[in-house]
Fold this sequence. Notes:
- By secondary structure, the chain is of the alpha+beta class.
- The chain has one domain: Lipoxygenase-1.
- Helices cover 16% and strands 45% of the residues.
- It contains two helices and ten strands; from the N terminus they run ααββββββββββ.
- It has helices at 2-20, 25-31; strands at 33-43, 50-58, 64-65, 69-73, 77-87, 91-98, 114-121, 124-131, 141-142, 147-154.
- The strands form two sheets. Strands 2, 3, 4, 6, 9 and 10 form a six-stranded antiparallel β-sheet that branches. Strands 5-1-7-8 form a four-stranded antiparallel β-sheet.
- The chain is elongated.
Amino acid sequence: MNNYRRSLLGLLLLLLPLLALKCDKEDVIKANQFDVKVRVTGDNLFGLGAEMKVESRRNVLNPKAGPSLSKAFSTSINQTYDLGTFGIQDDVTISALFRQVTCNSMVQPVANTKLKVELLVNGVVLNVVELTPASKNTSGFSCNPFWLATTIGSGDDWD
């Protein structure tokens, strides 16, 4: 029993400095805010109707539309777009699409075609969608009514 008391006292002495720390409300808020960007890269997009779409939802418990973005690309792209600050209860849907390409259309991407959309949170890639000729075998891909790949990044995964 004596060793138990000594261990407990030692643990309390170790925790005492932590208990003395005060968490400022601003620090708690900042820890739950995330800088969100979308990076788009692509090559050999001519004639495919290549586009990128971003939709966001603020507060999944009481949803409101957040920032959205839609861009079309004719040949190639290498651009990053800032969506702003998001919280833990927000989510972002990113999509890559080829509007001129269907399952059986005459227009099909060439072997080295690529459209890649990355969701960056605080500078780190969190989610990626990519359209290439090999995309048909990936989750989130659809070719009806046209080629489309989509994924969702949720705020509760960002911390």
